[in-house]
Amino acid sequence: QVDLVESGGGSVQSGGSLRLSCAASGFTFSSDCMGWFRQAQGKEREGIATSSFGTISYADSVKGRFTIARDNAKKTLYLQMHSLKPEDTAMYYCATTRDARWWCPLDTPPYTVWGQGTQVTVSS
Question: Residue 95 above 90 pLDDT?
Fold first, then answer.
């Protein structure tokens, strides 16, 4: 069974840091596209960081503040977040396309498996 389980969310003050984790199971992981997405209340889900076997991509809104990383041995995807802002408040999801790509898009359609999400709240 393919599964993604996020953890590490919480409440922090503006300027703080958090590290999210996504534990994967039931698929290859090491070569598959993985991504972090977020959805704020009343807004569409947006891609913020993706990792393939060859490249990493970031949305402009998080570039320089967030870092995506993967531990293939542990089948875990991470998102290290620094300099958090109130506008980063959202439900954060990890997802996979279940296939290997040189470049993983920030768009949601290719991602077929999603975790349940972890809430991040940043107060000013």
Answer: yes
Question: pLDDT tens, 9-40?
Answer: 999 999 999 999 999 999 988 889 999 999 99
Q: Which amino acid is at 20?
A: L
d(CA 113, CA 71): 19
DSSP for 24-88, please give it: EESS--SSEEEEEEEE-TTS--EEEEEE-SS-EEE-TTTTTTEEEEEETTTTEEEEEE-S--GGG
* Backbone dihedral angles phi then psi of residue 48, each to the nearest 5 degrees: -120, -25
Q: pLDDT tens digits for 53-87?
A: 889 999 999 999 999 999 999 999 999 999 999 99
In residues, how long is the chain? 124
